[in-house]
Amino acid sequence: MTANESVPPSPRGAALLADPLLNKGTAFTPDERTAHGLEGLPPPAVESLDEQARRAHAAFLGYDKPLNRHIYLRQLQDTNEALFHRVVTEHLEEMLPVVYTPTVGDACRRFSEIYRRPRGLFLSYEDRHRFREILRNRPHRDVDVIVVTDGQRILGLGDQGVGGMGIPIGKLSLYTAIGGIHPARTLPILLDAGTDNEDLLADPHYLGRRERRVTGAAYDELGEALVSAVEAELPGTLLQWEDFATAHARPILTRYRDRLLTFNDDIQGTAAVALGALLTAITVAGTRLTDQRIVVLGAGSAAVGVADMIRTAMTDEGLSPDDARARFWFVDVDGLLTASRDGLSEEQRVYARGDEQESYGLAEVVRRVEPTVLIGLSTAHGAFTEEIVRQMASACERPVIFPLSNPTSHAEADPADLARWTDGRVLVATGSPSPPLEVDGHEVPVAQANNVYVFPAIGLAVTAARATRVTVRMMVAAARAVGRCAARSATDGSRPAPLLPPLRDMRAAAREIALAAAVAAGEDGAAPRAGEEDLRAAVARAQWSPRYDEPSR
Ligand SMILES: NC(=O)c1ccc[n+]([C@@H]2O[C@H](COP(=O)([O-])OP(=O)(O)OC[C@H]3O[C@@H](n4cnc5c(N)ncnc54)[C@H](O)[C@@H]3O)[C@@H](O)[C@H]2O)c1
Ligand SMILES: O=C(O)C[C@H](O)C(=O)O
Ligand SMILES: [Mn+2]
C-alpha cells in the first residue's frame, strides 16, 4: 500500500455488527463491546462460538422445510460467516443437503422470491466493457477462488437465469467448509446473459435481465470479457465454471484451460469423483478397470467428461486408446451414439459405435452389451427401470450402477430399488444424497458421487501449491486419491459397500486429495516444485478452520 492510499477505518458499533466477516454477535467480550462502541447493541449474554453454534443448530432444527432451513442458513452466513461455517462444518452430513444439492435447486428456482441480500457479483451482458471496473466493487480485495455460472443448466433443472447464483454461493460455502478456503477469499459470480425460461421472462418479480439469452459471437464476447477482467484484476485466482449448458461448457474449457488457472467442475470435478468411486467399486467387486463394459446414459458435458477420465485411467493401466474407447456405449435422448448419427459433437463422436447401425434405446443396449457399469448423467428421472436393472444384474455378479443426475427429482434410480432388484448385489453411488440402505439388518450408507468430493480439494491444492494451471493429471491424481480415501472406509465383505469416504471425514479427505493434486501440479510444471512433506504442511496450513480471527481483507 502506498502512502497515498489510506487504510479504511475499522468499522465500529452497528457497522461492525453488519459486517459478516468481522461480526461476532453475542461473542464480543465485554472489553470488545467497550472498545468498539458495541455496548447495548447485542443482548447482554456473552457466548463462546461453540455456544452460539449450539443455539444456531437448534434454530436450524426449528424449521421443518428444507428451503426454510436453507434461507435460515443463508441469512446466518450473511450475518456471521465464522458462525455459519462452524455450524456447517460441525453438522456437515445434516447440512450439506440443505446448503447444497438438492435444496439449493429449490433456492435457485425461487431465487427472486427468497432474495434478501446481495452476495458476490452480478455481471450483465450490457456491462461487458466495464467488467474490470465492476470487479473492483468486489467486497474483498484478495480472492483465491471464483465460481461463475450463467445459470443456463442448473443441476438437471434447466435455465434458471440469475437464480443460478444459488449454485456458486453454495459451492463456495463448501470450498470454505470442506476445503478451508477463507470466506473472504471467495467470490461467486453470476454472468447474466439473459434467460430463455418463459416462466422467468413472464415473472414480474424476476431479478435478472428480462431479455432472451445472447448467443453466438455475443456470448463468446461475454465470456472473454469475464476472463480478461479476471486476468487483469485478479491474476492467479482460480476460476471455476459451473452449470454452463453443454454447448458452451466444453468450448469455454478448451479456450481457457491453457490461458489461466481454471477448470470446469461439471466436466472435470464430476469425472474425478466418478472415477474415484468406480475404482473403489471394482476393488470391492474384485475386477479390473480395463475389463469393464460401461454404458453411459446421457451424452452431455458431464457424461463425456466422466468417460474421458475413465478412458485416461484405462490407458494408464495399459489399454490402447482404441481398446479403451471400445469399452463405452453412450445412449442419449435419441438412443445409442453410432457413427452414422448426424449432429454429434467432436467429443461425442469419440464414443460413437462403428459396430452398430441402429440407435437402440437403453434397454436394448443393456441386453446386447451386458454392461458391468451403468452411469446416469441424463437428467432422466427413473430411466434405470426395474427391467433394465434386472437384465443387467442377470449377467453381472456385482453390477456397478451410478445414477448421478441431480437433484433427487432427476435421478435415474432410487438406491433402495436398485438394492431390491439386484438382491443387494449392486454397488451404487448417487449424485444427490440418499438415505442409507438396509442390508441384512444393517444400515449401509450410500455414497454421494458428487463433485463436492473434488472441487474444495482442488481449491486447497492450487492455493497451497501456488499452482498456475489445473492440468488433466492433477484431476486424475485427485480421482485416484478419492479412491484411496474411500478404499480405507469401504468394508470388503459387506453388501453393498460405501464407495466414497464418509462425509464427516471430508475435511481430512480434502487434504489428502489436495496433496495428490498439488504433487501432480509440481510434476506437470503447473506449480513450483516442492517436496511432498512440504506440500503436506502447506496444505494443512492453507485449510482454514472456522473461528473468530482477523480476516485478510
Ligand atoms: N453427480 C454430480 O456430481 C454431477 C455433476 C455434474 C452434472 N450432474 C448431473 O448430470 C446431469 C446432466 O448434466 P449435463 O451438463 O451433462 O446436462 P446436459 O443437459 O448437457 O446433458 C443431458 C444429456 O442427457 C440426454 N438425455 C436427456 N433426456 C434423456 C432421456 N430421457 N434418455 C436418455 N438420455 C437423455 C441428453 O440427450 C444429453 O445428452 C444433470 O442432472 C446434472 O445435475 C451431476
Ligand atoms: O451441484 C451439484 O450437486 C453437482 C453438479 O455440479 C451438478 O451440476 O449437478
Ligand atoms: Mn454443476
Automatic annotation (TrEMBL):
<dbReference type="Pfam" id="PF03949">
    <property type="entry name" value="Malic_M"/>
</dbReference>
<dbReference type="InterPro" id="IPR037062">
    <property type="entry name" value="Malic_N_dom_sf"/>
</dbReference>
<dbReference type="InterPro" id="IPR012302">
    <property type="entry name" value="Malic_NAD-bd"/>
</dbReference>
<dbReference type="InterPro" id="IPR012301">
    <property type="entry name" value="Malic_N_dom"/>
</dbReference>
<feature type="domain" description="Malic enzyme N-terminal">
    <location>
        <begin position="77"/>
        <end position="257"/>
    </location>
</feature>
<keyword id="KW-0479">Metal-binding</keyword>
<dbReference type="InterPro" id="IPR015884">
    <property type="entry name" value="Malic_enzyme_CS"/>
</dbReference>
<feature type="domain" description="Malic enzyme NAD-binding">
    <location>
        <begin position="267"/>
        <end position="522"/>
    </location>
</feature>
<dbReference type="InterPro" id="IPR036291">
    <property type="entry name" value="NAD(P)-bd_dom_sf"/>
</dbReference>
<dbReference type="InterPro" id="IPR001891">
    <property type="entry name" value="Malic_OxRdtase"/>
</dbReference>
<protein>
    <submittedName>
        <fullName>NAD-dependent malic enzyme</fullName>
    </submittedName>
</protein>
<dbReference type="InterPro" id="IPR046346">
    <property type="entry name" value="Aminoacid_DH-like_N_sf"/>
</dbReference>
<dbReference type="Pfam" id="PF00390">
    <property type="entry name" value="malic"/>
</dbReference>
<comment type="similarity">
    <text>Belongs to the malic enzymes family.</text>
</comment>
<keyword id="KW-0520">NAD</keyword>
